[in-house]
């Protein structure tokens, strides 16, 4: 199976680059070397480099492993947590049943 090049829209690319920068800053704040984080996450240093650059070709599992090493795993749970648009779309399609008329006694 040939590797496909992932093409992102500019806005998505910008978000991924920012995530990578945030991961790198978190690593530096913890005073951990790239080698330490890569070893603990069971990935290569090159993969960590790609993560910190926001490379879309790196698996989401590798991103999660690095975040777990940095103790940011709970942040990963925040992804798509508040789906405001999805809830609005769902609410718009909800059908309310009409009440039956009251019976006269």
Task: Please tell me about this protein's structure.
- With about 100 residues, this protein is mainly alpha-helical.
- It has a single domain, classed as 434 Repressor (Amino-terminal Domain) (Orthogonal Bundle).
- Helices cover about 55% and strands about 0% of the residues.
- It contains 6 helices and no strands.
- It has helices spanning about 10-30, 35-40, 45-55, 60-70, 75, 85-90.
- It starts with 9 loop residues before the first helix and ends in a 13-residue tail after the last helix.
- The model has no long low-confidence stretch (mean pLDDT about 90).
Overall number of domains: 1
What do the pLDDT scores average to? 88
**Share of residues in strands:** under 5%
According to CATH, the fold-level topology is: 434 Repressor (Amino-terminal Domain)
Oligomeric category: single chain
How far apart are the termini? 74 Å
**Rounded to an integer, what's the Rg over CA atoms?**
22 Å
Number of beta strands: 0
| Class of secondary structure makeup | mainly alpha
Main sheet record? none
In DSSP terms (H or I, runs of 4 or more residues), the helix count works out at: 6
The CATH architecture can be given as Orthogonal Bundle
Instruction: Give the helix proportion (percent range).
Output: 55-70%
**Overall spatial form:** elongated
CATH C-level label: Mainly Alpha
Stretches with pLDDT under 50, minimum 5 residues: none
Identify the CATH homologous superfamily.
lambda repressor-like DNA-binding domains
- Element-level helix/strand string: HHHHHH
